[in-house]
Amino acid sequence: MAATTTVDEAARQALASACERVEDATAADEVDGVAPGLVAHPGSTAQVAEVMRAAAGHGLTVVARGRGTKTTWGLPPARADLVVDLSGMDQVLDHAAGDLIVEAQAGTRLSDVQQAVAGARQRLAIDETVSGASVGGTLAAGTSGPGRLATGTMRDLLIGVTVVRADGVVAKAGGRVVKNVAGYDVGKLVHGSFGTLAVVTEALFRLHPLPAARSFVSVPVEDAAHAHRLTQSVVHAQVVPGALEVDIPADGPGTLTVLLEGIVEGVLGRTSSTLDLLGPAAAVSDDAPDGWASYPWPVDAAGDERATALKLTFALSGLADVLEAARDAGTPVHVRGSAGTGVVYGAVPAGTDVAAVSVAVDRLRATCTSHGGSLVVLDAPAAVKQAVDVWGPIPAIDLMRRVKDRFDPDHRLASGRFVGGI
Amino acid sequence: MSGTHGTNRTAGPETGPVPPEATQATGETGDRDRALAAVTQRAREVVPEPGVITDHARLRTYECDGLAHYKVTPGLVVIPETVDQLAAVVRACAEHQLPFVARGAGTGLSGGALPRADGVLVVTSRMRTIREVRREDQRAVVEPGVINLDVTRAAAPHGYYYAPDPSSQQICSIGGNVAENSGGAHCLKYGFTTNHVLGAELVTPDGDVVQLGGAAPDAPGYDLLGAVVGSEGTLGIVTAATVRLVRAPEEVRTILAGFASTDHAGAATSAIIGAGIVPAAIEMMDALAIEAAEEAVHCNYPAGAGAVLVIELDGAAVEVEHEFGEVERLCREHEAFELRVATDPAERALIWKGRKSAFAAVGRISPDYIVQDGVIPRTALPEVLRAIADLSESSGVRVANVFHAGDGNLHPLVLFDESVEGAGEAAEKVSGAILDLCIGHGGSITGEHGVGIDKAAYMPRMFNDEDLDTMQLVRCAFDPNSISNPGKVFPTPRLCGEVPGKRKGVHPLQESGLAEVF
Ligand SMILES: Cc1cc2nc3c(=O)[nH]c(=O)nc-3n(C[C@H](O)[C@H](O)[C@H](O)COP(=O)(O)OP(=O)(O)OC[C@H]3O[C@@H](n4cnc5c(N)ncnc54)[C@H](O)[C@@H]3O)c2cc1C
Which ligand 1 atom minimizes the distance to the CA of B112? Predict the structure, then answer.
């Protein structure tokens, strides 16, 4: 484990004048085994800017934190002198119901955003895959759930963003309207950047109407080929699925579930068409099946108790192969995720021998790559992260480094956490 | 300068302010000539005939895009057939610090493909292969010169289509769509180009070939593809795109509704969206636009309408049926005096005919016009339309409104007659004031046509220096020497640092007095 950082007095002073609440870090503030020196709790974009300027002035490395639900994801940062905790920035700033947009501070919980817009029968169409997650953390980690089949990911929902750069400069991109092509889409760069490019402080999203009705049609799947066949039959049909998920535990038969959402009459009709497609074993429910919109690993495990958490992507024609490879990975892998978009998650249980995990990662990665996709180890015990290639090969890595170097020339932000050591 | 002049009746090069930077970049003419000669020679080595054009008369056929008001004869035109040829030419440009501009079909409405007299225009019209249509994956892989509608044509036998549908879809290229992040009437429901491009092969301004994204979603690392889409050719040239194909809907219903005024039509629009309905499209035309369309294509829109809405619903049949009832009810509730419903493709085409011909039609009632592309929050529609009407009245400049009402993307057509002294300037003023209205309502200066050379001067009204500097960081990462479509999108090209000695002395923009032009 890395040593605890000590922050000198001058830097402390500078931070204290930048932001009211600056505290010594505790064990709870560790970033994947790296102990930070201080935690700053800014309350506004202006304060984040002050904090970042102070950090820049004193050469401090910084890790931004939303609600801390995914701080161990990716690789551990090389250093973390300062954690910038955004949980104090928890306001929904604006909900323009007639325009179907919402603006929130980065530390706002997704659930609070949903609550704020639900009164107008609207929703931010992003699944909360880890309970308690913030807007900014979800954006930076680029998480998504079953609903991505119909409404995409935060990448598709983000229409404007305010960031504080590593040098403390505040910048905005995008705007308040859904349709806008003025200037570069910096929001896209921030999405999924794991906090290595800039600190997101505010974000604007387009909203969707809350569906009046929904139903889940589930069917047991015999094997990979069966899941593949059913998936193909649903995506090419006219049932307009809201989600198409598989959940295949390592040791038992799996399930395929289709979500249908919309107006009551429509959902009724499409549910019955889906039942026809999925065959006599299919059943309808008003409620989501267990594990819906969550990962196949326990998200509250820490340290070596963590499962190895995999994200696998592939072109749809690769579904059977990927599921097959998970079965033949040499070690148990529980697969769950969006069969309809080619984004599934895999869990290798905690305690699995590192060498076995490594073999599984290699096999699955090879399969995903052969189907135009990739495999990322989102989280894992330290020994696994050291043994495997967490991010895998990245075709445009040189360009990515150049982007990082322009935005954060001193590699102040979460350096080492992201692809290629960025 | 802002907006588009009617392409058939543009002010000529002598009256239109050609951006001087574009005609000649630096004082070091000798160096530039030598560089151009070197790149020409290299192009001849790698690009087969007739892909290298140096003849002046033929170069002139590329002097403008859809914004014909600006004209610059390119120094060289290269039309490569393969990515390797294209990359070799870009590499030669990089080696000699020569600017290059990508061009697809040249239908852009913001001067994005305006050539450089001291540079190379790289045209993608010989890269038109649809490499793959993969139904199982719901993907197609296409070369940049492929025409938008051809992707849908190739997908149609499989029951699929390519969703982004700019009105120019019969002629514009996928490369141009990617560069502009083009929209279309149906983007209200289905999103823009950026939501439908999953991968791209990019020739960087260094001449390297990189793959961004791919057939699968969520490629790890920074979403460089997301930055490239909509970057208007300033981050390199896209040489292939992997696009999402969307299942063709089971049912489509198109409705034409006539209203007394744009206020009523705007309120109906808000009511429909407010009811939780997401139509595939809601388009509005005001009285002047209807008049123009009527004269041009005899679309037989409801007589006496102050505004019409074209509303399209698509999806599963049961849903469409139900939503149609709702839309009908809401239109009547907001005093639609006439409703027409198309149920077959022929009737649908008839309804769309008026809307789709609107730009061209306006050319018949006015010798010149400027098209704006500002966006406002949808709820501000009635207010902004009234303000535009006031502007029009007080200035005496006629404005026809045709637009994507569902997402607040206005296309005011500012009418004038260039032969009348001062008319052009008056139209410019109104046009600029409309953009200010959009910005004032929290909107954007461009919803789909791009900034190009045309609206670069308006960028600082929407973004401050820090915002623009931050965007510039992206530019500098991709193109530190600023050779990929320089002078577009950003008002004052900034230098990237670390690349010394490219431009010496007074900046060419200042030298040429471009600041005064704008
Ligand atoms: C009648 C008419 C209607 C239109 N309707 C719409 C509409 O509804 N919605 C809409 O969004 N637009 C519309 N447009 C604008 C225009 O058609 C689009 O912007 C289109 O995407 C441009 O494509 P193009 O191939 O003509 O590109 P060009 O005009 O050739 O180029 C446009 C820009 O893209 C760059 N570029 C071209 N190819 C590449 C490449 N391979 N790699 C990198 N950069 C490249 C160019 O440098 C330039 O900056 C309309 C235009 C006309 C004339």
Answer: 49
Residue B513 has pLDDT above 70, yes or no: no
Phi and psi, residue A338, nearest 5°: -85, 90
CATH number of the CATH domain containing B217: 3.30.465.10
CA of B231 to the centre of ligand 1 (A): 12
One domain for residues A194 and A78: yes
A183 touches chain B (CB under 8 A): yes
Give A248's contacts (C-beta < 8 A, 6+ positions apart): A221, A227, A254, A255, A323, A326, A334, A335, A336
Size of interface A-B (CB pairs under 8 A): 267
Per-position DSSP letters for B203-256, written without gaps between them: E-TTS-EEEEE-SSS--SS--HHHHHTTSTTSS-EEEEEEEE-EEPPSEEEEEE
- Those residues with Cβ within 8 angstroms of residue B23's Cβ, 6 or more apart along the chain or in another chain: B72, B117, B118
Mean pLDDT confidence for A365-389: 98
User: Given a cut of 60, is residue B89 above it in pLDDT?
Assistant: yes
CATH code (residue A339): 3.30.70.2740
Is B249 within 8 Å of chain A by CB? Answer: yes
Q: CA-to-CA distance for B449 and B458, rounded, in angstroms?
A: 14
Q: How many residues does chain A have?
A: 422
* Same-domain status, A125 and A201: yes
Rounded to 5 degrees, φ, ψ at A6 are -110, 135
Domain edge (last residue) among B200, B221, B247: B247
Q: Does A399 touch chain B (CB under 8 A)?
A: yes
Q: Which amino acid is at A10?
A: A
Backbone angles phi, psi at A245, to 5 degrees: -115, 150
Q: Which of A418, A382, A414 is nearest to A400 (CA)?
A: A418
In terms of domains, do A197 and A65 share one?
yes
Distances (CA, A) of A179 to A345, B341, B444, B445, B495: 32, 28, 8, 10, 30
Regarding whether A144 and A13 lie in a shared domain, the answer is yes
Which amino acid is located at A107 in the chain?
G
| Beta-strand pair B76-78/B52-53 | antiparallel
Each residue of A207-238: pLDDT tens digit?
999 999 999 999 999 999 999 999 999 999 99
ipTM of the complex: 0.97
Residues having CB within 6 Å of any atom of ligand 1: B 65-66, 101-109, 112-113, 124, 144, 166-168, 172-173, 175-177, 179-180, 182-184, 232-233, 237-238, 359, 448-449, 485
Length of chain B (residues):
518
- Joined tokens for residue B96: 């000699």
* pTM (two decimals): 0.94
| Coil, strand or helix at B299 | coil
CA distance B490 to chain A (A): 8
